[in-house]
């Protein structure tokens, strides 16, 4: 979920605004020597049940990424465009036509997901299109472990990102993604609908039945996991999802920003000709 002209996810932007107000400026073990921090978080990972093999392969030799810190510090946690201005940059004829093609191509899969999770296909495809252009766009190019270790060491939101780092290690531990595929965006978001690692663990679904949750390569897992997140937070099939509805509120777990949820709803309606 991206701000205009920025690759920082709007959903995380809103979350981080709240955390900046509520989280102490100096959480445990933040700052100081980066190597000492890695040793400390490695002990936390072991206590959380992560194997020494995963810890060693993921964190041995990891270094701080100053580009991530610099990018993070440049973000402006505001949204200055109107809905009309924003939606015009995100939902054009090409993306609508692409979404309609995805509805046709994945019709059987989407029907199965609707039946299990009770989330309409047009909502799922709208989110998919907005996040990464149906998996064809930019999913991020940064090593997730290095990115999260960098942000976890920083003293601004260390508790949040230490949790995300441990969740990322659990993704590798579970065998969902190998370390080489743990590539994501500037806050550690992963895959075709840009799940933070904690959401990957909490909501991820192995819908293609291959024994792992793969949100980078498996459209079935991507769409089912997105549906599971919405369903778990109260989204109901057959009910309206525009602003002011219960379903619109259920989408807050996906994105707190009203303007983004309005864009999802608008795009979804365009996909089905409303």
From TrEMBL:
The keyword DNA damage does not apply. SUPFAM superfamilies: Lysozyme-like. Residues 1-27 form the signal peptide. Keywords: Signal. InterPro entries: Lysozyme-like_dom_sf (IPR023346), MltB-like (IPR043426), MltB_2 (IPR011970), SLT_2 (IPR031304). One of its GO terms (molecular function) is peptidoglycan lytic transglycosylase activity. This is Lytic murein transglycosylase.
